[in-house]
Design goal:
Blueprint: H1 2-13, H2 16-39, H3 44-57, H4 63-68, E1 74-77, E2 92-95, H5 109-142, H6 145-151, H7 155-191, H8 200-231, H9 234-255, H10 264-273, E3 275-278, E4 281-283, E5 289-291, E6 294-297, H11 298-322
Parallel strand pairs: 1-2
Antiparallel strand pairs: 3-6, 4-5
Helix pairs in contact: 1-7, 2-5, 2-7, 5-7, 5-8, 5-9, 7-8, 8-10, 8-11, 10-11
């Protein structure tokens, strides 16, 4: 079995599509890191001065308001703290404070690392799905799959080797992508930004979000491999995936709000983030709309997505055992 997995790994890694897309993944992460580094600086004083300048420019009422109120406009400072209740009338101008215009120019590790982890996982999962589907579909198109069975006739072993090689490869790619994303974020924050607020809780989220994200990568890559094994054509798998995302999920979101808890993208997001909330707005009593809140937790999402993954794999295995195989790839 180890020999067969090694052969499949070499075949996968030698594919041009694998090399190009993985290189594109890491190039994207490097570009993101460079952009974050260029945009970050520690000149907080200049940012405060710019905010004060903008606030001063907005201190006086605008000409249209003066014209509307006949020049009789009441100017009042912005209320401090949490304000409740109405503010004057239509001829009251609330002067903005400098804080309204202030934006910290420093790249914050605690504030951005979560987004970078999500981006690295998303790229690894999407590219893994495409490459995994192409890895199997191309063999059926080229007619090389039947030739492989002459060397190893035990089809389940071949299925397992192909699935393990694709899943293992992209889990490894995901690990390296996470190291690049998190490492570059820390480097930028330490040299040009700020690491303030990087508590043990932040690292806890980074580690566990990364582990759950790698599970999503494994599930999506394995699903792409299995569906391509069933369809025996890469284009059919990719067209089906795009059709599902662009058509089915949009239709469900608009017309079948009760199904939102079962959408794949929602559950994948909940698995990576730990939990997520969705707020479908639907028609209730006549003339009224009801806002329902669904909370999706990671354990429930993992069970649901894992069940779908196992089901697709079982169907592929049964198909491999029962269907004839010929060199045309249509068996």
């Amino acid at each position: 079995m180890s020999t067969l997995v090694g052969v499949e790994l070499r075949r996968l890694w030698s594919r041009r599509l694998f090399r190009l897309l993985v290189a594109g993944l890491f190039a994207t992460l490097v570009v993101v890191a460079v952009v974050n580094g260029v945009r970050s600086n520690r000149n907080v004083a200049a940012a405060h001065a710019r905010a004060q300048q903008l606030a001063a420019q907005q201190a006086n009422p605008p000409a249209p308001l003066l014209a509307h109120c006949g020049g009789n406009v009441q100017v009042t400072p912005e209320p401090a703290g949490e304000f409740k209740g109405p503010i004057g009338g239509p001829c009251v101008w609330i002067q903005p404070s400098a804080q309204d215009f202030y934006s910290d120019p420093r790249f914050s590790f605690a504030g951005n690392v979560g987004n970078l982890v999500g981006a690295a996982i998303s790229l690894a999962a999407i590219i893994g799905f495409v490459v995994g589907a192409g890895f199997i579909g191309a063999e059926w198109t080229a007619g090389t799959f039947p030739l492989l069975l002459t060397w190893e006739p035990r089809r389940i072993r071949v299925l397992a080797a192909k699935a393990l090689s694709a899943i293992g490869s992209f889990v490894a790619v995901g690990v390296v992508a996470l190291v690049v994303a998190v490492g570059s974020a820390w480097l930028i924050a330490a040299t040009r930004g700020t690491t303030a607020g990087t508590t043990a809780l932040v690292w806890h989220h980074v580690i566990y979000d990364s582990l759950r994200g790698l599970l999503v990568v494994a599930l999506l890559v394995g699903t792409g491999v299995a569906i391509a094994g069933l369809a025996r054509h890469t284009s059919a798998v990719l067209a089906g995936a795009v059709g599902y995302i662009v058509i089915f999920e949009i239709v469900v979101r608009r017309f079948h709000w009760q199904w939102l808890r079962w959408l794949l993208l929602e559950n994948a997001g909940a698995l990576v983030a730990g939990k997520t909330q969705i707020f479908p707005v639907h028609e209730g009593p006549p003339g009224l709309f009801v806002n329902t809140v669904y909370t999706l937790h990671a354990d429930r999402a993992a069970l649901y997505l894992g069940s779908l993954f196992v089901a697709v794999m079982v169907v592929w295995a049964v198909s491999m055992m029962r269907r004839d195989v010929d060199e045309s790839g249509r068996g």
